[in-house]
Specification:
By secondary structure, the chain is an alpha/beta fold. The chain contains 16 helices and 15 strands. It has two domains: about 100 residues, Urease, subunit C, domain 1 (Roll); about 300 residues, TIM Barrel (Alpha-Beta Barrel), CATH 3.20.20.140. Helix 13 crosses helix 16. The protein is globular, with a radius of gyration of 21 Å. The relative contact order is 0.18. This is Cytosine/adenosine deaminase-related metal-dependent hydrolase.
């Protein structure tokens, strides 16, 4: 098997380097040794110990590899669904079920996940918070050398079903050996009974695993937790009546308070979407250490409200950003979602000068944080040599972060993971 080209024992340089961990560097460079960053700085101040190393000079902007805070790579084959437009989460869910049920060959989940991994690599992404619903999609991150966590998903489990074999089946799945890091994904507080989620989160915590769920994605979700509105569970048909929230007429709690009551919040957990949450709910997430991965383009396709990006930024949240899957998003290019976040924040009145810095932080350090990783997401000596280069022209006097946020989509020319070249445009 042919090995990947490497940038080990060499200098990767660019017109601009964005360490994220520090100020932008004009004519910057990164020295790579044994898969790690050995030095970061201005090319003209290269230390003598690296003077004999080859230098690869790239046009544009060099960054850490991007970190996608929410994906389902196994749905890469559902791109036709993601190219549609929908009026609500419930409308999209009905169409999603048609696509899902049409998959007859389980191996398709693995093929689609591999296709998705390749697409994401080609756009500069090197790490993922990846949800796996079907076994054939498992192990793809490790296969591609990608960093991150594969969260095994539980969905549609009422207490009755959980006690009739669901518990044993999920635990056995979790016990299967795998090459990568594993987490637990209780799909959403509406698609699992609360007692099931309590067991799932306890199981994850007993094994030191992280937790990832979908919260605040549906406009009618809150009314289920409050008084038992059945609308968000429409795709479950007659099975809806098995869910405790419907049988009990809700709980009278808001979305985040209900999530807290079933042990879904905490510093070891992060949520996708977080759209339909008021200030009190958002404060509860922040104060509990629960981070949110915002997925603006997916929300737009499904027909949802815009996430309160400006509020998250003003209120002191450390957000991440995700593409979601091609079943609800036009592409797996994370910089397209970074641009969308910036546009939303501006439209919502965020006028601070740090906007582009913060949304890039969300796609790097913020994503690393939801994976509980401190060795990725920035360019600093000793960190992993996970790098991306974007062929973006930075005008004289322009902040390179602004250039990358506003024009970075589709511009990745190089992706490096642990010193190995995993994507090179034209290679």
């Amino acid at each position: 098997m042919r090995s990947n080209p490497t940038v080990n024992d060499s200098i990767v340089a660019a017109e601009w380097v964005l360490p994220i961990a520090g100020a932008a560097i004009h004519h910057g460079a990164v020295a790579v040794r044994e898969g790690r960053i050995a030095w970061v700085g201005s090319l003209e101040s290269l230390p003598s110990e690296f003077a004999g190393w080859p230098v690869a000079l790239h046009a544009g902007v060099l960054t850490p590899g991007l970190v996608n805070g929410h994906t389902h790579l196994q749905y890469t084959g559902f791109a036709d669904l993601g190219r549609g437009s929908y009026t609500s989460f419930e409308h999209w869910s009905e169409e999603f079920e048609v696509f899902y049920d049409a998959v007859q060959d389980p191996a398709e989940w693995g093929r689609a996940a591999r296709d998705g991994a390749a697409l994401a690599l080609a756009s500069g992404t090197t790490a993922f918070a990846e949800i796996v619903t079907d076994e054939p999609a498992r192990g793809v991150l490790a296969e591609f050398g990608l960093q991150g966590i594969e969260y095994l998903e539980a969905i549609g489990e009422t207490e009755t079903r959980w006690n009739a074999g669901g518990r044993e089946a999920f635990t056995a799945w979790l016990d299967q050996p795998t090459a990568g890091v594993v987490g637990v994904s209780p799909h959403a507080p509406y698609s699992l009974d609360g007692e099931v989620i309590r067991e799932l989160t306890a199981l994850a915590r007993s094994r030191g695993m992280r937790i990832h769920s979908h919260v605040g994605e549906s406009e009618v979700e809150a009314s289920l937790y409050d008084f038992g509105n059945r609308d968000v569970l429409e795709i479950y048909g007659d099975m809806r009546d098995e869910f405790a929230l419907i049988r009990n007429g809700g709980t009278g709690l808001s979305t985040a308070r209900y999530a807290a009551s079933i042990d879904l919040l905490g510093a070891d957990s992060h949520l996708a979407h977080g759209i339909y949450l008021d200030r009190a709910d958002r404060d509860l997430l922040r104060d509990s250490g629960t981070r949110v991965a915002l997925c603006p383009r997916s929300n737009r396709v499904i027909g949802l409200a815009a996430a309160p990006v400006a509020d998250y930024l003003r209120e002191g949240h450390e957000i991440a950003v995700g593409t979601d899957s091609l079943s609800s998003s036009p592409s797996l290019d994370l910089l397209a979602d970074v641009a969308a976040l910036a546009e939303l924040a501006t439209s919502q009145g965020y006028a601070d000068a740090d906007l582009h810095e913060r949304v890039l932080y969300a796609a790097t350090v913020g994503g690393a944080a939801v994976l509980d990783r401190t060795d990725i997401g920035a360019l600093r000596e000793g960190m992993r040599a996970d790098l991306a280069v974007f062929d973006v022209k930075v005008a004289e006097g322009e902040d390179p972060r602004t250039a990358l946020v506003t024009r970075g989509e589709g511009s990745c020319t190089l992706t490096v993971i642990g010193g190995d070249v995993r994507h090179a445009r034209g290679a």
